Amino acid sequence: MIEPAHVFNTLRLGPLVEVPVLLSLSYLALWLRGRLNWEEVSKGGEANSVDVERK
């Protein structure tokens, strides 16, 4: 059986772990966006696309 103290600790500590992790992932995504130049791909459509005709 689950003890109420464990449930309380989980509910109390969950946001203390979740918020910094999500903020870190957000900053990582913003850093990677600038590092990998994702904006150029999204503005220009498909990058280096080659039309292939099917016979």
In words, what does this structure look like?
The chain is mainly α. The chain is 73% helix and 0% strand. It contains two helices and no strands. The mean pLDDT is 75.
Topology:
Layout lengths: L3 H33 L1 H7 L11
Give the key terms.
single chain, about 55 residues, mainly alpha, rod-shaped
Describe the structure concisely for a colleague.
The protein is mostly helical and 55 residues long. The chain is built from 2 helices and no strands.
Mean pLDDT metric: 75
Helix amount, in percent? Answer: over 70%
Number of strands: 0
- What is the tally of helical segments? 2
Content-based structural category: mainly alpha
Rg is 22 Å
